[in-house]
Structures are given as structure tokens and as C-alpha cells.
Amino acid sequence: MSDGVTPVLEGLAHELENPPLKKIGVMASEMIRNHIYRGEGFEPLSPATQAYRGRGRPLQDTGGRRDSVTMVESITPTVLDVDTVSVGTTAECAPIHNSGGVITAKKNWLWIPAAGTRQLERSYGRKPGDVLKGLRGDDCWVYRVGRTVCYRKKRKGSKARVVYYLKKSVRIPKREFFYITNDEAETLLEEIINDIV
Q1: Where are the beta strands (DSSP E) in 105-193?
Q2: Where are the domains of the chain?
Q3: CA 87 vs CA 34, 48, 150, 156, 178: distances in Å
Q4: Which residue of 1, 111, 153, 197 pairs with 158 in a disulfide if CB–CB is 3.0 to 4.6 A?
């Protein structure tokens, strides 16, 4: 056998044993991110969510959900071997967005932001306690009426505004994005074959 053929065959054998997993992981991550971007089949935003954040597409408010999808590189060897690539997300709420379900208050209430609350969060902080503290510090009365939390400036003629709705639970619609289609799997397979040959 020629000296030039042996290294090529050894290289091919090595490639077959160690496919280009990092590249495949990056490609698969991008495919999943594109599912979020396209939003195909997603239930539209609820009127309450639109009032809070404005019109837009589900799961694309800040880009955090999309950006959280990545190839998992720091998995212990007992979980994944050298022939495996894993794609995951660091977003704690991704599973319920992907599969849908009901979120129930751990303590008393879920605090659902009302229209206009987003601007208050930008000034005072994202947590309801921060918003209410900020409103009180800006010379507002903060009070509860039934299952709503309202505020009003401490001056004559000022209007009351709802800042939060209190709920025991909310249903999150299923917006499945974490999957690979058959066509995408074919593309990944072709990429492996092209890198090997």
C-alpha cells in the first residue's frame, strides 16, 4: 500500500470514530433558536401580555429564551461520552414555555403586571416589591382593591391605575420550540457525512 493512502485511511477512521460534534451541536442550537424566531404554530400573546409588553411575537420579548439555547459543553463524562453532543437551555422557565402547563402561586398570589407596569419596572426594578416601594417613594398611595393592586398620586384629581393583578394560577400555552424536524436531522447527517468524506 502506498505511504500516502495509509494516513488518509487512518484519518478517515479517526473521523468516523470522532464526528464533528461541536459543529453539529452549534447547528442544532441554531435550528432550535430559529423555531423560536419563526414562532410557527405558537398561540398568540394574551391580551394581558400585549397590554403589559406591547404587541410582538411569543417568546421574543427580550431574546433571552432564544439566546439561552446552546450546546452543552460542560457535561460530566458519566453522563455523555465523547460520541455525544447535547443541546440545552439555561432558562429555568423554558420547559413550561415549550410544553405548556399551569403555574400556581407558591405562597399567596402570582403578581401579573398590568398595562403600564413595564415602564414602572424600568424605573424601580423588575420585582413587584421594588415597584411598590418606588411608587410609595414617589409620593403615591398603593392599595389593593379585590384582586388588583392599584396606585394613585397623592394630589387632588389624580387617577387610580392598576399595577398588578393577583391570581392563584395562570395557564401557560404550549409553544413547542425544542425539537429537530426530520429535514433538520437530514441536514445534520449530511453535514457529518460531508465532513468525514
Answers
A1: 110-113, 140-145, 148-153, 161-167, 169-172
A2: 1-100+173-197, 106-171
A3: 14, 32, 43, 57, 9
A4: 153
> CA angle at residue 114 from 119 to 146, to 5 degrees?
135
Radius of gyration of the chain (CA): 25
User: What is the rounded CA–CA span in Å between residue 139 and residue 118?
Assistant: 19
Measure the CA angle with vertex 101, ends 176 and 45; round to 5°.
65
* Beta-strand relationship, 148-153 and 110-113: unpaired
Does this model's pTM top 0.85? My answer is: no
Distance CA 147, CA 31 (A): 42
- % of the chain residues with pLDDT over 70: 83
- What is the pLDDT at residue 109? 96
Ramachandran category for residue 125: left, alpha or beta (phi over 0 → left; psi -120 to 50 → alpha): left
d(CA 67, CA 47): 25
